[in-house]
Model the fold of this input.
Amino acid sequence: MPPPRPIEEVQLADPAALPAALRSWTTPKVVRGLAAGWPLVRAARQSDTAAADYLKQFDHGSMPVTATTAAPGTQGRVFYNEDLTGFNFRREQVPLRVVLDTLIKYRSDPHAPTIYVASTTLDTYLPGLRQANPLPLGQADPLASIWIGNRSRIAAHHDAPDNLACVAAGRRRVMLFPPAQIGNLYIGPLDFTPAGQAVSLVDFAAPDLQRFPRFEQAMQQAQGAVLEPGDALFIPALWWHHMEGLEAFNILVNYWWRPVEAWRDAPMNALMLALLAVRDLPAAQRAAWQAVFEHYVFNADDQVAAHVPAHARGVLGEMDESSAARLREVLRTRLSRGSNG
Done:
């Protein structure tokens, strides 16, 4: 298979230019050195121990983190078990200091278990860290999270929000695929997942092309990069990304945001409901509903309801928080009745 082509790299000499750039980007971008001025990155360049000690300054110690651990035989792959009835890892609540000390302890052990603290909210668990390591995003209330661990392989998955991921310690190898490659990545269950998002069942380290032959087509569209401390990666919404921690001590800080109001529902809810209500209809009816969705959702413009007086447009009118709440209540009522209408 061909190697992934490089992710486009852009230069931002002034971090203040980041907000305008983020508003214009629709494809992945690597920004080398964007977070190089962070005290956390400077500590990590000094040593793993210095980075761990820097994090400990912000740990209030009153709330354990969720640590994922897997046996050495998994080779860092955080995944399902063999028959997809469970997972190859376990989770436990552990003080952050214990996690950091354990990672430092196992740094030189070639047979260390996989240790992975995923998506831990910065402001909750490490208050003050974001302020001490700022990044001007120009986005309304982004969710900032930290990811800490040793060598790990996280199966390709996608997220609904846009994502800016900054490597603070260690190195990360990333591989990205456009949303349209969903059919070539062999995605697993939507409602039984290792960490909340559906993942590709392909082992990127040893792809089984007899079982997953279309993965070769996905690789023709793949983009990749290795990120060093201080480097940042912009991942647009719904782009599939495979993440690999390459060192014995890795830290990543990421920011998620959606370009819509917080009161709008998650699109995944609509997909789940469509699976329930639309997918198994007869083909002719499914095609008819496709036309309806195209008209009201995917190709919607200001002409869809232009013929209806503004006061009578209801859910076809401009949505705000109040009308969204009313629509949500209508949906609750209809779902509770099992409506076929």
The first helix runs from residue 18 to 24. The domain at 5-257 is CATH 2.60.120.650 (Jelly Rolls). DSSP finds ten helices and 15 strands in the chain. Residues 158 and 240 are 5 Å apart (CA to CA).
